[in-house]
Design goal:
6-stranded mixed β-sheet, single chain, 9 helices, binds zinc ion, alpha/beta, elongated
Length: 212
Amino acid sequence: MKLESSEPRTGNDNGYEKIERYDNQTIQDLSGHYRDILTLIGEDPEREGLNKTPERVAKAIQYLTNGYSIDPVEILKSAMFREDYQQMVIVKDIEIYSMCEHHMIPFFGKAHIAYIPDGYITGLSKLARVAEAFSRRLQVQERLTVQIRDCIQDTLQPLGTAVVIEAKHLCMIMRGVQKQNSITTTSAFTGEFLENARTREEFIHLIGTRLS
Ligand SMILES: [Zn+2]
């Protein structure tokens, strides 16, 4: 049994500064559209506080959707090792930040990932990076959960893969559709986690979550 919490992120690991590979033409085009949006909502894009906002927002959106240019399979393959270990490997409490594709408003929370190796293991941090690569796209939580599972299952071909995501959706909270603190939980399993109730229960117990 291997149980690991994802490392807390430090401030400089989180900022936009880290990604310097902005596509200048795209930033320029996006900025023009955001300037129009400011005007359309009744703002004055020329006033001092908003002067550079279109460009900042353009860079922010490019950063928040940079998962499209990351190949999660390559992430796993970059640290895939032959190993006879056949116990459950769990990485829990992986912070995720994504945006719902219906409103382009953030949802965020935690992902818990487990797999039971069948000949190959991967670096623990790579599981978190796979979650991030799929998160930084326009998403629905259900698809995000399944994509992470399928990527691990197809690449490492373990005896089973389990993914649980617990997230708050600002599109619900800010727009007052649901209770303020509602958390959406999604799960996706393969192999041993599907077929063996005890394995699944062990995983659920270890991540400390109750699935409805
Ligand atoms: Zn939404």
